[in-house]
Amino acid sequence: MTVLSCHGVRKVFGDQVVLDGLDLDVSEHEVVALIGASGSGKSTLLRCVNLLEELDDGTIHLDGEHITDPRVDPDKVRQRIGIVFQAYNLFPHMTVLENVTLAPVRVHGVPRTAARAQALEWLGRVGLADKAYAYPDRLSGGQQQRVAIVRALVNSPRLLLLDEVTSALDPELVGEVLSMIRDLKSDGVTMVLATHEMGFARQVADRVCFLDGGRVLEQGPPEQVFAEPAEARTRQFLSRIIEAGRL
Ligand SMILES: Nc1ncnc2c1ncn2[C@@H]1O[C@H](COP(=O)(O)OP(=O)(O)OP(=O)(O)O)[C@@H](O)[C@H]1O
């Protein structure tokens, strides 16, 4: 079953065409990694899917519903699509539990008790139950990012978008976030992630999509794209990454 379907997506900033007729379908339980040079539009695509950017052309469907139709309420859609950014942006004056339940209660109208129960269940599943009443400054960066991921999961979204979620972390903290994402994958969470870390893409993705020229130039299982890229542009991108010691 197709969860996400992007068709002919075009996004222009000023005179810069960032996405140029991009097509991408994501199946239920699939984990798709977007890779590509800095500025190739990975974040922009995730922001378009979460309706944080308006499309200049094309359509996006979620579970068959046309969500980029202007009549659609973006808040209703965002209840079904979780997004996590590089900066975890937890509110420092709120406990972990308050941070995690804020949007479901305030924005999406979920009753407080139901939101708390769901939040506590998720925190337990990811090994953070004992942090529910802690304030963010008591947590490591890795723990804070895991809380931010839980915050995106509390509504049981159909799709989870992860934008460079390990980039701000010290190397020794990356592992715990990766391991959480692997657990989510085992739980069947459908995810699209943008990353500079090819090791991350290799470890969690079912499919890697290389963005170039505003489209998906090449895609396939990580072992195929990384070992035998078909396109010259992909080979060039990967060889630079290998030179930088990041593959
Ligand atoms: N709100 C905006 N206004 C103007 N230009 C923007 C805006 N958002 C993104 N861009 C431009 O669009 C291009 C694509 O940016 P985007 O962040 O999507 O790329 P990316 O592949 O995620 O890059 P990175 O790997 O560096 O995060 C960049 O040139 C960026 O400067």
Automatic annotation (TrEMBL):
It holds the Pfam family ABC_tran. Keywords: Amino-acid transport, ATP-binding, Cell membrane, Membrane, Nucleotide-binding, Transport. It is a peripheral membrane protein. GO terms for molecular function: ABC-type amino acid transporter activity; ATP binding; ATP hydrolysis activity. It is found in: Cell membrane. The keyword Nucleus does not apply. Signal peptide: none annotated. Residues 4-238 form the ABC transporter domain. This is ABC transporter. It comes from Phytohabitans suffuscus. It comes from the Bacteria. Belongs to the ABC transporter superfamily. The keyword Nuclease does not apply. One of its GO terms (cellular component) is plasma membrane.
